């Protein structure tokens, strides 16, 4: 164990600067232990160690991230719309609007009834990310949803 530590220390120290070192003679082997190549060094040969090569950093030019702007960068928001469909019950639609869009029970009922009577209703006006989130979650529940920029509505 001592010889492993000595060899490790010599390796670490030799990587800092270059100089000549000679390994230490190890303790005699015990018959019940397996020998390792490191513990079998018993000579006084000199070892010349060179300093490690330096790694040069590549000249990396930082590119500015160009984010895609939304279709209408000057848009006032996005309208998430609900369409009437004969597949879903009115109570289910109102519950989905309450759970996903955080509408009150009364507001969810009004939006659902407007979609039921007129065929379409605006759930709300949201930023792009929130509108996409609500649209995706409501579509996963089986509702007929789309979103449009407010300027085009």
Termini Cα gap: 78 Å
The portion of residues forming beta strands comes to 15-25%
Tell me the major beta sheet.
3 strands, antiparallel
Q: What helical percentage do the residues reach?
A: 25-40%
What is the arithmetic mean of pLDDT?
76
SSE sequence, one letter per element:
HEEEHHEHE
Largest sheet, order of strands side by side? 4-3-5
Number of helices: 4
Query: Count the strands?
Result: 5
- The rough form would be described as elongated
Low-pLDDT stretches are 65-72
What's the gyration radius in Å? 37 Å
Structural class, from secondary structure content? alpha+beta
Question: Layout of SSEs?
Answer:
Blueprint: H1 2-16, E1 20-21, E2 47-48, E3 78-83, H2 90-101, H3 105-118, E4 120-126, H4 128-140, E5 144-149
Antiparallel strand pairs: 1-2, 3-4, 3-5
Using brief descriptors, characterize the structure shown.
153 residues; alpha+beta; three-stranded antiparallel beta sheet; two-stranded antiparallel sheet; 5 strands; 15% strand
Architecture overview:
The structure is a single chain. Helix content is 35%, strand content 15%. The protein contains four helices and five strands. Helix 2 packs across helix 3. The protein has 153 residues and is α+β, with helices and mostly antiparallel strands. The strands form two sheets. Strands 4-3-5 form a three-stranded antiparallel β-sheet. About 5% of the residues have low confidence.
